[in-house]
Amino acid sequence: MINKESIIISLGGSLVAPGEIDVGFLKRFRHSIKKYFNKNKFIVIIGGGKIARIYQDVLSEFGAKSADRDWIGINVSRLNAEVVRQLFGGLAYSKIITDPNRKIKTEKNIIVGAGWKPGWSTDYCAVLTAKNYGAKTIINLTNVDYVYDRNPSQFPDAKSIKEIDWKDFRKIVGEKWTPGLNSPFDPRATKLAEKLKLKVTIINGKNLERLDNFLNNKPFIGTIIK
Q1: Within 13 A of 188's CA, how many CA atoms are on the CB side?
Q2: For the domain that residue 56 is a member of, what is the CATH number?
């Protein structure tokens, strides 16, 4: 992996398993990523997504503590990550990485990671991973086309945003992390990404040609936060 640029992808769990595992998406994702193995290495951090939130909501009904709800989300993210690691077979590093501060030395072209510990989302893990590997950009593959000024599922008149700075983005996502928070990029990750002067690109993973366009420095549909 010498001289290969590290690309960090925060892959939303709701793309991997929106209800059941989306095998079609996973195969398309593998095809998209493999095309760049000659020049890039990828560290892909997998989220828990919708399924994690379902479990967390149930635990809330039982009065579970925030840390316990976080742990179940972490465990779902690790299960999703194992599916993605197996997807790439021998092309991927042999273990899921759960500590984003640990730098892996490997000739493999892809490393798959998951949640680490309570209080931190996989977005935050992606930011720590970027810091660890010296990457300046994180690609956040999610299930929305853009960042919006308001939640588009609640406000039909919500406006899409193609480019935004971290200060204005913080006004949208707020300041507080809660288990299962459904946000384009979580508040704690936002603060650290701003401090590290990272660029985060939000792309709808359901349309992987947009990822191709971004990786090839072509115009793409999505939002840049910097």
Answers
A1: 15
A2: 3.40.1160.10
Query: What pLDDT score does 170 carry?
Result: 87
> What are the residues whose beta carbons fall under 8 Å from the beta carbon of 20, sequence distance 6 or more?
none
Q: For residue 211, what is the enclosing H or E element?
A: helix 208-215
Prediction pTM value: 0.91
| pLDDT tens digits for range 114-135 | 999 998 889 999 999 999 999 9
pLDDT confidence of residue 171: 85
Q: Which tens digit of pLDDT belongs to each residue from 197-207?
A: 999 999 999 99
Domain that holds residue 175: 5-225
pLDDT greater than 70 at residue 177: no
What is d(CA 200, CA 204) in angstroms, rounded to the nearest whole number? 13
d(CA 225, CA 113): 23
Q: Which two tokens stand for residue 82?
A: 């194992």
Q: What is the DSSP string of 12-32?
A: -HHHH-SSS--HHHHHHHHHH
Q: Which residues contact 41 (CB under 8 A, 6 or more apart)?
A: 1, 4, 5, 6, 7, 108, 109, 110, 111
How many structural domains comprise the chain?
Answer: 1
Strand 147-148 relative to strand 160-161, pairing: antiparallel
SS3 state of residue 51: helix
Q: Where are the beta strands (DSSP E) in 22-109?
A: 40-46
